[in-house]
């Protein structure tokens, strides 16, 4: 099996290609185009885009906060509410999903995109990620009504369980922060 498959940007339709992606989960693909920003803008016009925000939280002892939802390790994040600022949403979501107090909102890490199906419709979620701090080693309270079954602090050098069982977009955040160095490869 060829590892990467090139998709034609000229005829790319996310609503159609996403079905193929779901049917081929171990395959990777790429799109070669002259202007990546213009291409992404075109894709965004073809589907519903949901804006979200979240954070990579580090506590005083230097541990990182992760949540467990949908059988995967994840970072706390959620939809930005109407008239809410991105930074406010990021802090609110982390605090709601984990039951902690963010003591400091730091710099933006990156933004990621991922696709999923909601009510039978292909949705593109754009998530803004921020570095955050939390004092001490607060007791975590996972937000069960959001499907979060666990929330834990992990030492920097003990996050292999996360790297081995998370989403590609979360790996992007961890790579940006130099917490993960492995490459995403199909299993």
TrEMBL record:
Q: Which Gene3D superfamilies match?
A: Nucleoside Triphosphate Pyrophosphohydrolase
Q: Which Pfam families does this UniProt record tie to the protein?
A: NUDIX
Q: Which PROSITE patterns did the record assign?
A: NUDIX, NUDIX_BOX
Positions the record marks as coiled coil are: none
Query: What sequence ranges are listed for the domain Nudix hydrolase?
Result: 48-176
Work out whether the entry's keyword set contains Cytoplasm: no
For this protein, the record's InterPro entries field holds: Nudix_hydrolase (IPR020476), NUDIX_hydrolase-like_dom_sf (IPR015797), NUDIX_hydrolase_CS (IPR020084), NUDIX_hydrolase_dom (IPR000086)
A single GO molecular-function term is:
hydrolase activity
PANTHER family recorded for this chain?
ADP-RIBOSE PYROPHOSPHATASE, DIHYDRONEOPTERIN TRIPHOSPHATE DIPHOSPHATASE
- What name appears for this protein in its UniProt entry? 8-oxo-dGTP pyrophosphatase MutT, NUDIX family
Which organism is this protein's natural source?
Mucilaginibacter pineti
